[in-house]
């Protein structure tokens, strides 16, 4: 259909306007269809884009297949604007097998897409506001790769992060904004403001809107658009993309929109909206754009024909989605992790002429080797850059060697340090990051749980996150309550991450390389008391340094001490299953029990080398599980329970456990610390009780 020519100037191409109108009709028809079929479509909670269509479709017009996109749960029209079909979105709505994003695993409007001709859309959680950090990580990766000549800056690739205005009050959004302006990152923050949270109004939730808030972030370009007006939105987004593509700096676009649907299908709008819904209906983007089409020469009949065509097509796709297959229940456990290429030990663990080295130096040399070999690798965290090179000197001089773009300090932002690695990985950078002390990891747990751990599983393997997170851990004599804690049990309750805990220099180097090359999130716990082998009894943590090619696979325990054949024949042996500092407490204690103690160093806590544990337990029949953590509800108790259940017939005594006292913190005074923690004497007493059982 061709419009009647009129003397009217519009700054947007007519075909773009027509396509946008059809897609607005599509979004409206889908929303009405879902409402009319509540029994089917509200089985799983969903949200729609009603009221937000104009700004979303305008945004989609400016995205290219070279860009990266982070959407939020209301961004259905962005997906339609990019070319996704209603049928594909409906497959996710109904949790069908061929849902292109997650195979029926995650909510409607939560895409994860790697498809030719589309922007990359990594997985993200539905925790509102949390997507800002991974999205900023994507922009950070683009800036980093461009700085290294690994990406052409002239391509002007952009990351776009879509947010609801209510989510901007999240602290993690502030961390994202801070890094975006600090590093001058190529990102657009699209903030869609409809004045509502769920049932809370903007006036209840905030002292200012996102545009006003962003003024506090020096270097953030700010634009306001009428999010209900397609032309104003299109031109505003055109300018935002121009700035970011050419000037490589962040922009925030604040778009005021009406909310015409419910918050989600689980919260009925009539319960709290009142007359507000009628007020918002006056700003409906669809009739606004329809009136514009009439002004430029289209007729009512033309618009009605579009309505009929769209309704027929959406209905047909809905019926097709209804008939689509459900997921095979047998596939429920696929894609917890992406396969790792590191499955066997490689390189020389004891090269000729090697000297003994400390764990901290082995870690430093491992990262040095990685940065030397992999230009896409970078290392960041608090105080790891510049002259200091980490509070434990574990990154000493790396910034000088590789430059401030590759090894750099971050603000005190544990959430950003952890969560940005998700965005980095999606773009192709390979981050190594550090949390300064295990006791400081808690602000980053949100990102670790919601963004990193779930991505591979919920994206059906499309977006595993390569992330190596280094965490100095453990007590080392007077560190006090905020520098001495153990956190492994908390981490091990997070599915979808790997947890590594080396106890000597050679293992540190080999496991660090394997952790870096693993395509999944890996947390490497590094005991501060073992770093320099200065704590009495930890001299064996120093080892000959392996060569640069040495790699030790994750999930392989090591029998670091065997019982004597004579004691085995006499049936007077016990095995200690432990890791970290526990290895050295067990070694010291075993000197008083000549030949009676085998020590298994787990080295990796997830994945666990269960075969080695079982073999050792069955060989000796008596077992002590030893940890530095407070014992109650710990990984050690869980492991002991599993041993008791699966090895019961081969046990000659109950499974013993030993750990720290069940107190909330480690006291500063060293004598109080000794009372709380395990030590060689406590281990010896437990072993003697076990042998005498």
UniProtKB/TrEMBL annotation:
It comes from Nibribacter ruber. It comes from the Bacteria. Its cofactor is thiamine diphosphate. One of its GO terms (biological process) is branched-chain amino acid catabolic process. Pfam families: E1_dh (PF00676), Transket_pyr (PF02779), Transketolase_C (PF02780). Residues 357-533 form the Transketolase-like pyrimidine-binding domain. InterPro entries: DH_E1, THDP-binding, Transketo_C/PFOR_II, Transketolase-like_Pyr-bd, Transketolase_C. The keyword Translocase does not apply. E1 component of the 2-oxoglutarate dehydrogenase (OGDH) complex which catalyzes the decarboxylation of 2-oxoglutarate, the first step in the conversion of 2-oxoglutarate to succinyl-CoA and CO(2). Keywords: Oxidoreductase, Thiamine pyrophosphate. This is 3-methyl-2-oxobutanoate dehydrogenase (2-methylpropanoyl-transferring). Its EC number is 1.2.4.4. PANTHER family: 2-OXOISOVALERATE DEHYDROGENASE SUBUNIT BETA, MITOCHONDRIAL (PTHR42980:SF1), 2-OXOISOVALERATE DEHYDROGENASE SUBUNIT BETA-RELATED (PTHR42980). Gene3D superfamilies: 3.40.50.920, 3.40.50.970. It is an enzyme of class 1 (oxidoreductase). GO terms for molecular function: branched-chain 2-oxo acid dehydrogenase activity. The keyword Protease does not apply.
């Amino acid at each position: 259909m061709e419009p009647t020519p009129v003397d009217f100037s519009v700054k947007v191409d007519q075909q773009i306007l027509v396509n946008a109108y059809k897609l607005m009709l599509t979004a409206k028809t889908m929303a009405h269809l879902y409402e009319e079929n509540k029994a089917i479509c509200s089985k799983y909670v969903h949200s729609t884009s009603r009221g937000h269509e104009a700004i979303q479709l305008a945004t989609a017009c400016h995205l290219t297949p070279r860009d990266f996109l982070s959407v939020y749960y209301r961004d259905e029209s962005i997906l339609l604007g990019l070319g996704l079909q209603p049928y594909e979105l409906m497959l996710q709505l109904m949790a069908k097998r061929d849902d292109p994003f997650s195979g029926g695993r995650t909510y409607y409007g939560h895409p994860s897409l790697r498809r030719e001709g589309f922007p990359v859309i990594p997985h993200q959680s539905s925790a509102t506001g949390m997507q800002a950090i991974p999205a900023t990580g994507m922009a950070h990766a683009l800036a980093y790769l461009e700085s290294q000549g690994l990406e052409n800056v002239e391509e002007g690739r952009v990351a776009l992060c879509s947010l609801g205005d209510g989510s901007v009050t999240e602290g993690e959004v502030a961390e994202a904004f801070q890094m975006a302006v600090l590093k001058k990152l190529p990102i657009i923050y699209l903030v869609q403001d409809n004045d509502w949270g769920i049932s809370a109004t903007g006036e209840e939730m905030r002292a200012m809107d996102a545009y006003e808030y962003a003024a506090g972030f020096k270097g953030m370009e700010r634009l306001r658009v009428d999010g209900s007006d397609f032309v104003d939105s299109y031109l505003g987004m055109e300018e935002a993309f121009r700035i970011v593509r050419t000037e490589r700096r962040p922009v925030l676009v604040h778009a005021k929109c009406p909310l015409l649907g419910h918050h989600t299908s689980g919260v009925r709008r009539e319960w709290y909206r009142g007359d507000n819904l009628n007020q918002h209906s006056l700003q409906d983007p669809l009739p606004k754009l329809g009136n514009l089409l009439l002004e430029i020469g289209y007729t009512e009949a033309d618009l009605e024909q579009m309505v009929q065509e769209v309704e027929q097509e959406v209905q047909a796709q809905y019926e097709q989605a209804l008939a689509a297959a459900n997921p095979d229940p047998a596939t429920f456990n696929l894609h917890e992790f992406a396969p790792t290429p590191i499955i066997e030990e490689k390189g020389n663990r004891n090269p000729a002429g090697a000297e003994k080295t400390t764990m901290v130096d082995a870690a430093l040399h491992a990262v040095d080797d990685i940065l030397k070999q992999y230009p896409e690798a970078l290392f960041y965290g608090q105080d790891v850059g510049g002259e200091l090179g980490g509070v434990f000197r574990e990154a000493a001089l790396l910034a000088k060697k590789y430059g401030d773009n590759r090894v750099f300090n971050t603000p005190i932002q544990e959430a950003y340090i952890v969560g940005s690695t998700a965005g980095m990985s999606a773009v192709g950078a390979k981050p190594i990051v550090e949390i300064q002390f295990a006791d400081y990891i808690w602000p980053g747990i949100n990102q670790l749980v919601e963004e990193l751990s779930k991505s591979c599983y919920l994206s059906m393997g499309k977006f595993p996150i390569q992330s190596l997170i280094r965490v100095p851990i453990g007590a080392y004599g007077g560190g006090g309550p905020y520098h001495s804690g153990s956190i492994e049990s908390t981490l091990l309750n997070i599915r979808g991450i790997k947890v590594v805990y080396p106890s000597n220099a050679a293992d540190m180097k080999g496991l660090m390389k394997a952790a870096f090359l693993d395509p999944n999130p890996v947390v490497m716990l590094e005991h501060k008391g073992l770093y320099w082998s200065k704590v009495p009894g930890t001299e064996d943590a120093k080892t000959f340094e392996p060569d640069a090619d040495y790699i030790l696979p994750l999930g392989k325990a090591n029998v670091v001490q065997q019982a004597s054949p004579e004691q085995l024949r006499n049936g007077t042996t016990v095995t200690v299953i432990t890791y970290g500092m526990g290895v050295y407490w067990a070694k010291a204690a075993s000197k008083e029990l000549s030949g009676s103690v085998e020590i298994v160093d787990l080295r990796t806590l997830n994945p666990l080398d269960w075969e080695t544990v079982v073999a050792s337990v069955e060989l000796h029949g008596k077992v002590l599980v030893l940890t530095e953590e407070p014992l109650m509800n710990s990984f050690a108790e869980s492991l002991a329970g599993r041993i008791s259940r699966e090895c019961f017939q081969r046990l000659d005594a109950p499974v013993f456990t030993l750990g720290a006292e069940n107190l909330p913190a480690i006291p500063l005074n060293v004598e109080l610390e000794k009372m709380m923690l395990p030590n060689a004497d406590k281990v010896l007493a437990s072993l003697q009780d076990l042998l005498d059982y």
